[in-house]
Amino acid sequence: MEEFKELAEYALNYAQEQPLDYAEVRMEMNNRDTVSFLNGKLHIGNLPIELTADAFSRMFGMNIRILVDGGMAMSSTNTISKSSIKAAVDNAYKAAQRNASQRKKPIKMSSEKSYEIKWSSNYKVNPIDISLEERINFLKDFIAIFDYPFPIQFFHIFVLITEERNNYFINNEGARISSYVPRVAFIPVIIGIVSGGKNEQMMKTYATSAGWDELLSWELVKKVRENVAILSDIVTKAKKPPQEELDIILGPEVSGIVSHENCGHPHEADRILGREGAQAGESYLREHELGFKIGNDCVNVYDDPTIEGSYGFYLFDDEGIKARKRELIKDGIFNEMLHNRETAAILNTNSNGAARATSYQREPIIRMANTYFAPGDFSFDEMIEDIKLGIYMKSFTEWNIDDKRLEAKYVGQEAYLIENGEIKGLVSKPTLEISSVGLFNSIDAQGDMNSLEWQGAFCGKSEPGQGIPVWTGGPNIRLRNIKLAGGE
What we know:
Elements (H helix, E strand, L loop, with lengths): L4 H11 L6 E17 L2 E4 L11 E13 L2 E7 L4 H21 L13 E5 L11 H12 L9 E19 L4 E18 L5 E5 L2 E3 L3 H5 L3 H18 L8 E5 L1 H13 L4 H4 L28 E3 L22 E5 L2 E2 L6 H6 L8 E2 L8 E2 L3 E4 L6 H5 L4 E5 L2 E6 L5 E6 L2 E5 L2 E5 L4 E5 H7 E4 L6 E9 L4 E9 L2 E6 L6
Parallel strand pairs: 5-7, 10-17, 16-25
Antiparallel strand pairs: 1-2, 1-3, 1-6, 3-4, 6-7, 7-8, 7-9, 10-26, 11-12, 11-16, 12-13, 14-15, 17-20, 18-19, 19-22, 20-21, 23-26, 24-25
Helix pairs in contact: 1-2
């Protein structure tokens, strides 16, 4: 990357030969390898599921974004020569001029501090350097789990993604930022089937930016073996859940997806302002101001890119803004949106570093990083001790939510009956249908740090689609006086 920095400076200098409001250049190298096993058979790259892309992807290019008279446009090229760079700059400039002539309201960028810095995630063993043989052997250890004679039939897919992102960002305000982040994700997909066709599917994502050694330290073979055994019990033993009003404890996997879908997405300022309406959707918070009471006082939901080792880790976003923790819901209050520089300018505030792009071919748009319920003070025993009738929904098999992120549905997978403060047997697919505001107002307790867990994910948004690496997480959370929508 170092030898191409002069060409980035050349692109910026050439752009500034014409009058403009703002210009930035982002050079990016993305390397990504995908190795998979489908029912024990090796696949390098594509599978008949939307988990993998090309086996060995190598992307390198430059993105130029220009603001002229309130019109914004970008252009990209993967031919890194002065002639192609000049053509890309010219294309961006002309498109920005056309955009300006067609806009009723000019685009503005918030005033921000510029940095000259080089940063990276902390890691010991870079996953992209692990040999193909070692990656294949890693996956084979999981296939061996199914040598045990389970009482049901299993289909299984194991996917390993290793990648690195190397960036250089500059703009006409003085920013000069170099960054490097390697990531690794392991995704087991397991389907259990009994005679008659009854089945259940389980998918997890274990992902980190802390290196290959970090992934190995998680004892994943043991965890997947436990998940397989639980899946077998769910298919063969789970009973229909009660239909009367009850209390629900959502485990970290479920509270994590709730924090992402019911809080993170509706707090994206571009959704609130309507830009994503025809693509990823809008937000119910468009009808409310900051300070709106969303939930009970105990509810705190944050988004923090700076968590070391997280899958969504970064220290500066793709507009050169220093990252920080965003307090989206604070003490039950609509406290903060996720911003880029454009939305921050519209709402007379500063960007909080939420602009991200998946590659040099894509524009940076508002994205989450690591969204989670903040831990509270309750142990698990304290949370269940006064529950007369309830459900402990430890994981989910399905979720759904409307375009405004208001009405949501979560179907439990590993879920247990609670009677008189004690955990009983498995229940089948308890279904929670509730509004975001209703959910946050039903929460009366958040578990302590001992129950805080994280899950990797790929958050989709925009058109063309951008699947960005994130973590979702949280502790156990308790909801009072809930009527289930169904179960099996």
